[in-house]
Write a structure and sequence with these properties.
The chain has 739 residues and is mainly beta. Helix content is 12%, strand content 40%. The protein has 6 domains: 97 residues, Cadherins (Immunoglobulin-like, Sandwich), CATH 2.60.40.60; 97 residues, Cadherins (Immunoglobulin-like, Sandwich); 98 residues, Immunoglobulin-like (Sandwich), CATH 2.60.40; 95 residues, Cadherins (Immunoglobulin-like), CATH 2.60.40; 105 residues, Sandwich (Immunoglobulin-like), CATH 2.60.40; 106 residues, Immunoglobulin-like (Sandwich). The two termini are 115 Å apart. Pfam families: Cadherin, Cadherin_2.
């Protein structure tokens, strides 16, 4: 079978051909996203156990085991019910049975039974059709609907008479459901099978000899149904034949009158009573049937009688209020036509089947929340159609509420306030009035009353926060929104409409009464800046805001708003040493000149020359300063500490170093954008101040030397240009002369 249960050699050949087709198709897979589906077909007998191999699906699709992880072979189907029967192995690619297969459950009486699946592979995507045929096995036995077949045959019946018998049923299909019948031996009867046009076989019992009841009044035989399966299965039924005689006795009731008591509203189908009559005859002449005798339609709509057993059942609704009793006649008739009659009297007993009825006489829709306890809200009346305890009613309110119900005159009740009302907790009360009677079981009715509570101004506005904090960057635009405060008033309408006002506050020493820092919008509670803030002048201030409702009298509350001004980088570093610096605008630098420092020529590396001292009026990162040497006569001779601004020698001073040194140090903050300033430091390399004085004198005397040097450089450049022009002219003249 090559892993396919129940597959013959012809099917195996077909499968090998299909495998060849799949192999060809596998070569074409890279050429298209979804190739035409290849149909594979397997066959497997029903009742195959879980885990059985149906077929090598991956191999038949042209897939190697090494390809399975990448191709991700799996099954698809439109029906989850079909998918539960089979599964595919991720390791081997074999198709397995996942659940026991029952062909009769899956396909019923259908001649063919198959499960259609789709096998999907990826990389590239392709879908193949897979059909699994479920083959029938002879796993069902022929079954008769009854354990025994009862027949009555009159003793004067002529030989040759035919009596059709019940056919057996076999849920299998094909030859497994083709039935043949056999009858146990009996000299008076034989079995014949009549085949109909649809192929079914009808067994018939044929009378062979005349019957004599005095000699034998009954017969018993066994009918056997055998199917065509291999091995065959069979089922049997017993045939009981009763030989009947003439009718000479009428039925007789056990009572001339029957009585019963029945509760009203009993369920439909309930048994009321049973009438019983007997007949001395046998066979059909002694069989009694029952029926109503001359009864009105009202009785037939409520009662029914079983013609065989004489049982009288309820088929309608019994209502004590409509009719308290019923009297009617019943007839008993045997198979020969003789009959007799009796009377039936049914008394209906009362039940508690009527719930109290509630009528609302007076309702107050709206009540102020400051109404005193005991205020009447509604007047209700209750009535129960029943009598006695079933008609006695008492009322109550369902659930918890500030209301109560008290008895009034007669069958009336009042709904009143039991405690103070609070509209803010509950603006509406839906109370349910429950009226219950004292029957068993008790019946009750409900009605809902809706009450609206009107508002009074009993709540002051409440801010969402007791204190607010706002953060605003300095240099803000006047009129910019700072913060929105919000207060809620639990009251409704004008009582809950809130307005906002500034009560007062402080802004430090910089605040002035003539120019307030903020204002508040009365309706929204939004605070707006009245002017631009300066962090260096005022870092924070506080104001009080009052929220007031529109009630009469008005109620109010206050909250504190604290505004913190955030620093911006709007101040450049200010150099204190060597000299005071003039701050530059953002992004620019300012140059300062300073005094000189004397450094001995014997100074080693790390010698402290001086320290640049600067401050920044800003705060935070905007005031963090860093120092950098941007220009020097001998760049390799000095270095500046990044954080402290200390100027030190980077190496030992040598005799080759110029006596006069000029250093330019840039001071930069960490704001965005960064601001900076520069400081110029003059250094004289000398062992003492006396030795440094000549260098300073040369510096003073040679103050104009840079200008003289520039003059000589320009003069020399002019002479070179004139000499070049003269040379060119002489060369040209020489060429002209040769020509």
């Amino acid at each position: 079978r090559r892993g396919v249960a129940g597959m013959g050699s012809g099917q195996a050949a077909q499968r090998r051909a299909a495998t060849g087709h799949v192999a060809v198709l596998a070569l074409l897979l890279p050429l298209c996203c979804r190739a035409a589906p290849e149909r594979l077909r397997y066959a497997i007998p029903e009742e195959t156990g879980n885990g059985s191999v149906v077929g090598p699906l991956a191999q038949d699709l042209g897939l190697r085991p090494t390809d399975l992880p990448a191709r991700q072979l799996r099954l698809l189907t439109a029906s989850r019910r079909q998918l539960r029967y089979f599964s595919v192995s991720a390791d081997t690619g074999h198709l397995y049975v996942n659940e026991r297969l029952d062909r009769e459950e899956m396909c019923g009486r259908s001649a063919s039974c198959s499960v259609s699946l789709e096998a999907m592979v990826q990389n590239p995507l392709n879908v193949f059709q897979v059909d699994v045929d479920i083959q029938d096995i002879n796993d069902n036995t022929p079954v008769f609907s009854k354990a025994a077949l009862d027949l009555e045959i009159a003793e004067w019946t002529d030989p040759g008479a035919r009596f059709p018998l019940e056919m057996a049923q076999d849920p299998d299909v094909g030859s497994n459901s083709q039935l043949s019948y056999q009858l146990s031996e009996n000299p008076s009867f034989r079995l014949e099978v009549k085949e109909s046009s649809d192929g079914s076989r009808q067994p018939e019992l044929v009378l062979e000899t005349a019957l004599d009841r005095e000699k034998q009044s009954s017969f018993q035989m066994v009918l056997t149904a055998v199917d065509g399966g291999s091995p065959a299965r069979s089922g049997t039924v017993q045939i009981r034949i009763n030989v009947t005689d003439a009718n000479d006795n009428a039925p007789v009731f056990s009572k001339s009158a029957y009585e019963a008591r029945v509760r009203e509203n009993v369920p439909t189908g309930s048994l009321v009573l049973q009438v019983r009559a007997t007949d001395a005859d046998v066979g059909s002449n002694g069989r009694v049937s029952y029926s109503f005798s001359n009864v009105p339609d009202a009785v037939r709509s409520v009662f029914s009688i079983d013609s065989d057993s004489g049982d009288i059942h309820i088929v309608g609704i019994l209502d004590f209020e409509e009719s308290k009793e019923y009297t009617f006649g019943v007839a008993a008739r045997d198979g020969g036509g003789l009959s007799t009659h009796c009377k039936v009297h049914v008394e209906i007993t009362d039940e508690n089947d009527n719930a109290p009825e509630i009528t609302t006489l007076l309702v107050t829709d709206t009540i102020p929340e400051d109404s005193p306890p005991g205020t009447v809200l509604a007047l209700v009346n209750v009535h129960d159609a029943d009598s006695g305890d079933n008609g006695k009613v008492w009322c109550e309110l369902e659930g918890e509420s500030p209301l109560s119900i008290v008895a009034s005159s007669g069958s009336s009740y009042k709904v009143v306030t039991a405690s103070a009302l609070d509209r803010e907790r509950a603006s509406e009360h839906n109370v349910t009035v429950v009226a219950s009677d004292r029957g068993s079981p008790s019946l009750s009715s409900r009605t809902t009353l809706s009450l609206s509570v009107s508002d009074v101004n009993d709540n002051a506005p409440v801010f969402e926060e007791a204190a607010y904090s706002a953060y605003v960057s300095e240099n803000n635009a006047a009129g910019a929104a700072v913060l929105r405060v919000r207060a809620r008033d639990a009251d409704a309408g004008a009582n809950g409409r809130v307005s906002y006002w500034l009560v007062g506050g402080s802004a430090g020493e910089a605040a002035t009464a003539a120019a307030p820092y903020v204002s508040v919008e009365a309706r929204s509670g939004t605070l707006y800046a009245q002017r631009s803030f300066d962090y260096e002048q005022c870092r924070e201030f506080a104001v009080e805001v009052r929220a007031q409702d529109g009630g009469s009298p008005a109620r109010s509350s206050t909250a504190t708003v604290r505004v913190f001004v955030l620093d911006l980088n709007d101040n450049a570093p200010h150099v204190l040493w060597p000299t005071a610096a003039t701050p530059g605008s953002p992004g620019s630098s300012s140059v300062v000149s300073g005094p000189f420092e004397v450094v001995p020529r014997s100074a080693e590396a790390g010698y402290l020359v001086s320290k640049v001292v600067a401050v920044d009026a800003d705060s935070g990162r905007n005031a963090w300063l860093s120092y950098e040497l941007v220009q020097a006569t001998e760049p390799a001779l000095f270095r500046v500490a990044l954080q402290s601004g200390e100027v030190r020698t980077a190496r030992a001073v040598s005799e080759r170093d110029a006596a006069r040194q000029r250093l330019v140090v840039a001071v930069k903050d960490h704001g965005q954008p960064a601001l900076s300033a520069t400081a110029t430091l003059h250094v004289v390399l000398a062992e003492s101040l006396q030795e440094a004085l000549p260098a300073l004198s040369e510096r003073a005397a040679g103050a104009e030397s840079p200008s003289d040097l520039q003059f000589y450089l320009v003069l020399a450049l002019a002479l070179l240009c004139a000499l070049f022009v003269l040379s060119v002219a002489l060369a040209v003249a020489a060429r002209v002369r040769r020509a």
